[in-house]
Structure formats: C-alpha cells, structure tokens
Amino acid sequence: MDPKLVLLVVGAVAVMCVVLTMGRYRFAVAALFVALTFLPVRLLGFGDVPFGWTVGVSSAVPALTTYNTLLLGFALVLLVERKLPRSARFAVPVVVFCGFGALVLWPASPNVSSGLLHVLACACAWAVGLHLGARLDPDGASGRFVALVLLLVACVLGLSVASQLASGAGDVERASGLFGHPATLGKLGVIFLGLLLPLSRSTAGRTRAMSYAAALVLFAMTGPTLSRANILAMVVVILAWALLLPSTRNLGKKILLPLGTVAVFVPVLDSLLTRFAVDSEGGDRPELLAAGYRQIAAQPWTGTGPNNYVTAVGGHEPIVALTGYPVHNMFLLTAAELGIVGAAFFFLPFVYALGVALRRVRTDGQVGDHARGILVLLLGITVVGLSGWAVVQQPVAETLFLVCGVLLGQVQRTRPVVDDAPATSTVSSPGAARTTTPARAARPVPRGARP
C-alpha cells in the first residue's frame, strides 16, 4: 500500500479526533491558516514534473496539498449540509467556465489540470471564508481565537526570516523565510492585514492586543524582503485604513498608525533606495508586459488555459522563453490564461465584495469595520498585483479568497453568533456569554452598531 495513502488515512483519523475536542470552527480556522502559510505541503501528486518546467500559478502536475485538501473537504461538507452561503454563487461562474474550457478550449495537459484544480480550490476558499466570517464574533471567543492564530502564524513566519538573516542562509540581501521567493511573505502580510485591522477594533482587549502585535510582526518580517510593491502596499493599506476610520474618537489612530508603519520600514530605507537606483524598471517587466498584451490580443476569449502561460507563450515570445516567467501583472496574466471572460469570472467575487463594502463603509461597528477591511485589502492587493503575478499563484490566491470571504461573511451576517466550542466547554468570557443569548441582546443593539 502506498505510504502516502496510509498517512492520509492516519491523518484523517487524527483530524476527526481534533475536531471532536477543539470544535469545528476553531479547527477550520487553525488548520486552514497553518496549511496556507508555513505548512503548504504536497500530500499526493498525480504524475512527475516534466523536464524544463519553469513556473506557473500552480504546480506542474495536479497534486493534493494540505490546503487544497482542507478547502475541498470543508466546501464539500458545507454542500452536503446545505450550509453554503448565498454569496458563494459568485464563485460558480469561473468554475463552470473552466469546466467548459477544459472540455472544449484548452489542451488536456497535466499543467492545465493542475491549474483547474487551483481555480476550484480558490472557489472553495471563497465559500469556506464566507461561512467562517458569518460565524465570527470579533468581540467574543471566536474573534480572540482568530487573532491568536494569526499572531502565531505571523510569529512563525517572522522567526523564519530572523533565522535566515542570522544564519546567512539563502539570499541574505532579500529574506524569503519559509518560501522560495521573498515577495511571498509580503503578499501574505498584506492579505492578513485586511483581517487584522478590523479585529483591532474589537471591544475585547486581548483581541485588540494580539491583532496589533500580529500586524507589527508582519511589518517587521516584510521589511527584510525588500519587496518594493509589498512594502508600498502595506503603507497604502494603513493610510487608507486611517483615512476611512470614523473621525470620532479616532484622531490619534489616524495620526499614529501611518507614522508607526513608516517608522517600521525606516531601517530598510537605504536598501530600498539602492534597489530603485540599480533596477528602477523591475528587470524584464517591461518586455514581459508587452508580451502579455500581445498574447491577450492573439487569444482574447479563449486564453492559453490556466497554469499554461509560460508553456504556450514561450514558444513564440523570446522574452518568456528566456526568463521562464509570465507577465508580471495578475490581471493580465489571468486574462491571458482564462481569456477576458474567464478573468472577469475569476475576479467576480472581489467585485461583488467591493460593491457591498462601498455601501457599508460608513456604517458604525463591526459591519463598518469589516467593510473597511475589504476596501483596504482589495486596494493593497491591487497595488501588489499591478506589478506582480504571484497574487494569483497558490497558496497566496487561496489565502486571498479565504480572507476576503471571511470579511464579506462578517459584513453580511444577519443572525447572532454562537461561538463554536467543544461540547464539554463552558462559557467563560463576557463575549461568549453575550453571543449565547440572542433573544434579548439582538433587539436593543442594531446590527453593526457597538453596544
């Protein structure tokens, strides 16, 4: 018997034991964020990586990983239990389109199959995030647990950067931590900021403290990567958050948050300026960008197929064949691979989330906080994605869909939250006590208003 299959069975049994003792909500949050960040491990591959494979939005052959297995499993449970949120339907068009493309438009190759699995995992991440967000109580035990998990994840990633710098391993001029490229850390940092900033407005002191601490660690770990777009995006996210905060009682935060963020990146300012002086255009980006425009013009509606850009375009674009990299723009790369219609379907969940957030951005309380979180998240990711393509690469794309789904689920939540705790646990915090008595507490406090 395949040892990997035995490992999967043993792991499934262990997961069941953890769920029974930890609670489904807490297990889902912890397992997903851990798997997406410092344990994105390949569990089972379906073929060998071909010689000469360079890079794509997913692996060269279809593979079950820790995170896509969890996402597919959780989404299947929601489907079977009929608990899929209504807004999950905005991820359906891209799945249907990719199914049609696999049958009619695109080559039947391992890398395209891997790309299709990647798109499906992103759609599942959106649905799972919506469900988790609808059950999140930022002022209760679940909000405290999410902040704790994000703090632990940030600390592990930060320690990996510190260890790399201390030992001089790898590219010491640009730290990459646990990942193969320095920019991955900053992209995850920008995404997590979108969730941490609303949690920093919780009425629970420990949740606020852990959220601020996690954000500080994210800033500190991104600096040594010297990723210009990511650092700029983090500064933009904080500036936008400060500007969007209600003016009443938040004047100090509007001033201190941007100043503190800039201060964190002062130690790496000289190195950043040196990078700008040496490589102001970002290497081969202009040539890759021109090649991307030509490819979209050649196949505007069908695209090359997901995860197939370098393979398909490298045959007739010398710059792609020479570098082995796709166009460094997440919007253009998606349009080149899925076609313009497919790209529109891929980004449809974010467009919908943006529309909802714009309508709720001036709302006070948790709804307004998470609506502002959606806006700053999408703004930061746009800053990164205009000069980079890896936002749509695994596991960053799955993380983005998951976090945006959580934020939107919280904005659209219409019923009181009951924190998901183990069956043997008791209510021990004021937040948990408040959320377990919906009958009277829900009436005097309108949805979205702070008590």
From TrEMBL:
Q: What is its main location?
A: membrane
Q: Where is this region: Disordered?
A: 420-451
Q: What are its GO cellular component terms?
A: membrane
Q: Which residues form a coiled coil?
A: none
Could you tell me where this protein is found in the cell?
Membrane
Q: Which residues form the signal peptide?
A: none
Domain O-antigen ligase-related, residue spans: 214-347
Q: Where is the composition biased (Low complexity)?
A: 430-451
Q: What residues form the membrane-spanning segments?
A: 6-22, 27-45, 51-78, 90-109, 115-133, 145-166, 178-197, 209-225, 231-248, 255-278, 330-354, 374-392
The protein's GO terms of the molecular function aspect are:
ligase activity
* Keywords on record: Ligase, Membrane, Transmembrane, Transmembrane helix
Q: How does it sit in the membrane?
A: Multi-pass membrane protein
User: Which superkingdom heads the taxonomic lineage of this protein's source?
Assistant: Bacteria
This one is known as O-antigen ligase
Taxonomic source organism:
Sanguibacter antarcticus
